[in-house]
């Protein structure tokens, strides 16, 4: 059925089997589907098909398709090779020493697979023809859903309870506490005041005497002393004043330094 | 029975089956007119529905009429089957914990007193929650103007917190010792001794209708269940 | 009748009402164990269900068994009447339908076996589509090299196709007789039947991370959701 000298630029001659012309490989779900379709065209029970004829039809179909330069998927070619092998096994009598499965066995295998595929297709459609839920059979259209009432089980430990109590009692205490506004002498202020008080005096005068006025407020005493003492040390370092203390914890005496430039 | 009435009965049964299926599968209540096409012209839908309703009368599912429409519904007395209790364990909020602690230590105590200690208004919801949890109860009414309800703790409270009696609640020194209270507290600070007895001399018994709480007697309260700063 | 049997009958009636209400309210089939708590310990749920089924036998709504579960469904013979206009959602593709049938009749089965029957590679999308429809499930892994996932059908499959058990599958007897449920050429001594039980002796349970399917273990597969010719 093939032209002996294929002319690529002309339509190939029509194949002998008219059916094959109208067969499009794209319409098949693989080689087994194609084989099943070809088998069906023998119009006999699958158990009675001629596997040899089927193999020949398949092979010539693939040939035709390839002549039309249509890409044929690999598994169709694998099947073609297997069928060519099957054909040879069927036509050549089996040698006694041959370990390979007989052609009849291979043919039976193919027949079985075709029958099984066909059976699956048949039951699939039977399944779809059953009264299906949502098509012929219906579930409750207005299901009454569960209403879920959530109840809480509260968790708290004795420690949580005591901590909550203690912390809020303490909170109550601190709420009544108003901090005392302290006057704090900055070092700069203390230094300015000390320098102003000492003025041009070169006499030893006790620091507390200079500060007497400021020390009269008990709340400020500490900050006045501390800041003044710290700034006095700074003034000593800068060479502006002299300091002396005659005994431990005794009064601190200060005077202006007689220095260079004076 | 004559053959004719047998036949009629058969038709009725067939119609009832169709109505059953229609009403079951419908996603909303159906009006009789909508069911008529399934029965054929001349069928007495209204009469059939009444018959069907009678058949389901004592069953777990009833055929009910809602306005002009009909539907199957779970029998009212079995509604509980469709309700589910779900319990979830949740930690008590800080406001609730604080309120509970004050009630425990200061009982019998009123809401005004709780608010005084906490420094914020206590939402109605907080008290309700503690009442529902079963940890506090209304004890009586304080014998003062306005007769406010006094609160105290319950046996369930003792049970939950593993206390044998109220006197197991730690006192001032114990709280200090355990580090829950810091050392620097005014000497005036005191931790009261909770009173768990029947009624104190300044308490009256609750009024007969008190067990709905003082919800209604206190219309100015926020009922939002949240604590908020006092105005 | 003695008082005792009257009382028993009353309890049965009460139980039947409860089952009626539960099954009517639900749209999904219920398993007896889920209904037991509403009846009380010791109630013979199975027996009661059979009684209830008998009561609804000729009605427009029937009590049907779907695997281990029970549900009310409209009577099959009324399907022609109730057939809705809006239906015909996207029909199942032929590959999907064939794959579903092969899984139903050959379960537990692997993808390789499905491909062997169909003679063509099965797109990942086909299996996914059936999994999503809730009709098939991954059952386990076959105890063979590669440990392929085995597939089987679900109770939703039974419900959708109105089957009580897998042995109600149409044409099953015939297929069994002709040996077409076998993977190999008959006559083979043992003819497998669809197996819906827990795990067969040649199946292992799924791995913990299997519920994402064997997507990742199978990197060569096309995931384009279409069947296609093998390369």
- Report the sheet-strand fraction of chain B: 15-25%
Given as residue ranges, the uncertain stretches of chain A (5+ residues, pLDDT < 50) are 1-22
Number of helices of chain B: 8
How does the overall form of chain A come out from the CA principal axes?
elongated
List unreliable stretches of 5+ residues of chain B: 213-231
> Could you state the oligomeric state of the chains shown?
heterotrimer
Helix content of chain A: 40-55%
Q: How many structural domains are formed by the residues of chain B? A: 2
Structural features, described:
The complex is a heterotrimer, with one copy of chain A (262 residues) and two copies of chain B (231 residues). In chain A, α2 packs across α5 (103-128), α3 (51-67) packs across α4 and α4 (74-91) packs across α5. The longest helix of chain A is centred in the middle third of the chain and has 26 residues, at 103-128. Chain A starts with 17 loop residues before the first helix and ends in a 6-residue tail after the last strand. Helices cover 51% and strands 8% of the residues of chain A. Chain A has nine helices and four strands; from the N terminus they run αααααβααβααββ. Chain A has helices at 18-21, 31-40, 51-67, 74-91, 103-128, 158-175, 187-198, 207-215, 218-237, and strands spanning 147-155, 205-206, 241-245, 252-256. Chain A has a three-stranded antiparallel beta sheet with strand order 2-4-3. With 262 residues, chain A is mainly α. Chain B is of the alpha+beta class and 231 residues long. Chain B folds into two domains: 4-83, Arc Repressor Mutant, subunit A (Orthogonal Bundle); 94-229, Winged helix-like DNA-binding domain superfamily/Winged helix DNA-binding domain (Arc Repressor Mutant, subunit A), CATH 1.10.10. Chain B has helices at 3-25, 32-39, 45-55, 94-106, 111-118, 124-133, 155-160, 172-177, and strands at residues 61-66, 69-74, 83-91, 109-110, 136-142, 149-153, 203-204. A four-stranded antiparallel beta sheet of chain B has the order 4-6-5-7. Chain B has a two-stranded antiparallel sheet with strand order 1-2. In chain B, α1 packs across α3 and α4 (94-106) packs across α6. The longest helix of chain B is centred in the first third of the chain and has 23 residues, at 3-25. Chain B starts with a helix and ends in a 27-residue tail after the last strand. The relative contact order of chain B is 0.11. Residues 213-231 of chain B have low confidence and may be disordered. Chains in contact: A-B, A-C, B-C. At the A-C interface, α2, α4 and α5 of A face β2, α4, α5 and α8 of C. β1 (147-155) of chain A pairs parallel with β3 of chain B, so a sheet runs across the interface.
């Amino acid at each position: 059925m093939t032209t002996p000298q294929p002319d690529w630029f002309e339509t190939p001659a029509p194949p002998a089997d008219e059916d094959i012309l109208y067969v499009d490989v794209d319409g098949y779900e693989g080689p087994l589907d194609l084989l099943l379709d070809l088998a069906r065209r023998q119009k006999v029970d699958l158990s009675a098909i001629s596997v040899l004829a089927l193999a020949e039809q398949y092979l010539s179909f693939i040939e035709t398709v390839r002549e039309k330069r249509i890409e044929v998927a690999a598994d169709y070619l694998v099947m073609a090779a297997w069928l060519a092998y099957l054909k040879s096994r069927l036509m050549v009598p089996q040698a006694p020493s041959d370990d390979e499965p007989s052609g009849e066995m291979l043919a039976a295998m193919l027949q079985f697979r075709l029958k099984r595929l066909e059976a699956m297709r048949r039951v699939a459609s039977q399944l779809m023809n059953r009264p299906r839920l949502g098509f012929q059979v219906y579930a409750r259209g207005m299901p009454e859903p569960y209403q879920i009432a959530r109840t809480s089980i509260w968790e708290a430990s004795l420690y949580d309870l005591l901590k909550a109590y203690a912390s809020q009692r303490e909170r109550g205490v601190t709420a009544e506490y108003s901090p005392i506004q302290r006057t704090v002498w900055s070092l700069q202020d203390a230094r300015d005041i000390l320098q102003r008080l000492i003025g041009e005096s070169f006499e030893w005068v006790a620091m507390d005497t200079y500060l007497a006025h400021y020390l009269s407020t008990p709340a400020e005493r500490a900050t006045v002393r501390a800041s003044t003492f710290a700034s006095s040390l700074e003034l000593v370092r800068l060479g502006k004043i002299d300091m002396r203390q005659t005994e431990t914890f005794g009064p601190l005496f200060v005077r202006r330094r007689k220095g260079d430039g004076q | 029975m004559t053959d004719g009435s047998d036949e009629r009965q058969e038709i009725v049964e067939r119609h009832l089956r169709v109505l059953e299926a229609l009403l079951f599968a419908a996603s909303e209540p159906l009006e009789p007119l909508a069911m008529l096409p399934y029965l054929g012209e001349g069928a007495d839908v209204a009469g059939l529905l009444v018959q069907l309703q009678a058949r389901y009368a004592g069953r777990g599912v009833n055929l009910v009429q809602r306005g002009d429409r009909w539907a199957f519904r779970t029998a009212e007395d079995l509604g509980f089957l469709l309700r589910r209790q779900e319990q979830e364990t949740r930690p008590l909020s800080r406001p609730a914990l604080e309120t509970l602690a004050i009630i425990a230590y200061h009982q019998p105590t009123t809401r005004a007193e709780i608010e005084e200690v906490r420094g914020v208004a206590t939402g109605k919801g907080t008290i309700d929650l503690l009442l529902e949890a079963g940890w506090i109860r209304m004890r009586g009414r304080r014998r003062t103007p306005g007769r406010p309800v006094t609160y105290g703790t319950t046996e369930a409270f003792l049970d939950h917190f593993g206390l044998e009696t109220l006197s197991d609640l730690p006192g001032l020194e114990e709280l200090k010792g355990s580090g829950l209270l810091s050392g620097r507290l005014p000497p005036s600070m005191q931790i009261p001794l909770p009173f768990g007895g029947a009624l104190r001399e300044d308490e009256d018994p609750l009024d007969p209708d008190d067990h709905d709480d003082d919800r209604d007697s206190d219309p100015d309260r926020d009922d939002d269940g949240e604590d908020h700063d006092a105005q």
